[in-house]
Amino acid sequence: HRHLLGIKGLSPLDIEMLLDRADEAVAISRQPEKKSARLRGRTQINLFYEASTRTQSSFELAGKRMGADVMNMSVASSSTKKGETLLDTAVTLNAMRPDILIIRHAAAGAAALLAQKVGCSVVNAGDGAHEHPTQALLDALTIRRARGRIGGLTVTICGDVLHSRVARSNIVLLNAMGARVRVAAPSTLLPSGIERMGVEVFTRMEDALKGADVVMMLRLQRERMAGSFVPSVREYFRYFGLDGQKLKLAKEDALVMHPGPMNRGVEIASEVADGPQSVIQEQVEMGVAVRMAVMDALLDPRRNGSQAPA
Ligand code: CP
User: Fold this and answer.
1) Is the confidence metric ipTM above 0.90 for this complex?
2) Which residues line ligand 1 (CB under 6 A)?
3) Atom 5, ligand 1: which residue's CA is nearest?
4) What class of enzyme is it (predicted)?
5) Is residue 47 within 8 Å of residue 102, measured between CB atoms?
6) CB 3.0–4.6 Å: which of 83, 166, 249, 290 could bond 138 by disulfide?
7) Peptide bond into 261 cis (omega under 30)
């Protein structure tokens, strides 16, 4: 079975092909009758151990738009509460013969572990601070549709890079596609050795914004900060929050992106989040399309047997 566990392992051609397929899914999703029958008869299970608004609902809509039977496992009211482990839960669900399992979990490597234990395709919908591949793909689709390309653009990723699976997946994808990637954060929120991922590192946001084509803001992930440095909101916003003043340093038509959920007044001001350069709502629309494309590619019978990840 074929899986999507991370952007690492995808070739630039794999990525382009998924984005092309997602463009077709956007067209389907903009018709009054938003249905294809490509996954008719297939069973999709969403297994979310961490909170989600965008990812879970878009995976559900994506499956339904392609005719799959979609089941959302309610982890909060499941036997997880009685001590059942992730693997026992997964093996139990696997016995119900799903075709694809979508998993979000707080532990890095959870999706890869599951993929070894179940007899169906697995998609990583976010594993700890490791990877969130469909997020990076939807970000790439948003950029490609707005600018016509990804290669050669300067993308500044700003905020809590240390705890961000979104940043990690985006850095890998954007580098693979030939973009120049900058990261900007207080040094306490940068992973050690981040330079080795092929990014330019800034601890002053203003410097990182100069001439950027795309500004991607990240939320402070307080849920992953137990016992470590938590910045004060007021100070953080002053130095690392994106407002209209700071945005002027980027290119005049720079795209403003945020994977959500946003904390307004912490990493981003409403004037920019809701302003003319913001493509945050486009990102959400592209999320459904990318998830349609990914599941379609993984379950495509014409490509079964291929070792390519997507
Ligand atoms: N961007 C993202 O993963 O959002 P959710 O946590 O709401 O799914």
Assistant:
1) yes
2) 52-55, 126, 135, 259-261
3) 52
4) transferase
5) yes
6) 290
7) yes
